[in-house]
Amino acid sequence: MTPNPQASFVCLTLMTVVLAAVRMQEELVSLHAEEGPAVVISGTPDHCAAEPPQVAKLDFATIDRRFPLVDGMMHIEAEQLAVPYDQQHRLFEYENIPAELKALVGQRVRMHGNMYPTAKDTGITQFFFSGETRGRAYLSYASSTPPYLFLEIFLADGLQTDYYQSPLIVEGEFSISREILDGRDSCWFVIENATVRRTQPRADFRPIVVHFGC
Length: 214
Hints:
Blueprint: H1 5-23, H2 25-31, E1 69-70, E2 73-75, E3 92-93, H3 99-102, E4 108-115, E5 126-131, E6 133-134, E7 138-139, E8 150-155, E9 168-181, E10 184-198, E11 205-206, E12 208-209
Parallel strand pairs: 2-4, 7-12, 8-10
Antiparallel strand pairs: 1-2, 3-10, 4-5, 4-9, 5-8, 6-11, 9-10
């Protein structure tokens, strides 16, 4: 299956703007209330301010890319997917993806996170998924929120799911979607032939908080 990145980015934006405030934010906050106060971001949201093009600088030496094998499946935390990215355009390029992540292509993996609001409540076979992050909270539209935290999920043939606001576990085959956008070999991560099940919030982990508007 070859996702269309341009269509996917449009779908992600539209779904988040139209449905996010109504269906997701309250429950995500309440689910994690027991973990302590949320990170407060004061002032004007940074996605509203003009900023020059820049590539986020990441210290790869501090990123642990060892993926534990649990029940025969590699367990990935969202922050382990870190890659340098264009902070203005919210994309990353294939050449900047570390070899350890490229080696995951075709491997069965497991991730914790949340489903983005969808256009329907049932019969869902494809959706966007944001990985949980340890300790720090992110806003969905903040330019400082790394694009590698968002994945596209394609369920296995014949499987469907309902829309859930609670945390999820997704298991499936890791893939990298690529397309030339503005002359750049742009990418994002995908999990294909996936299954999904509900789970409980994890201590010290936070969902990406849906936020829009200036």
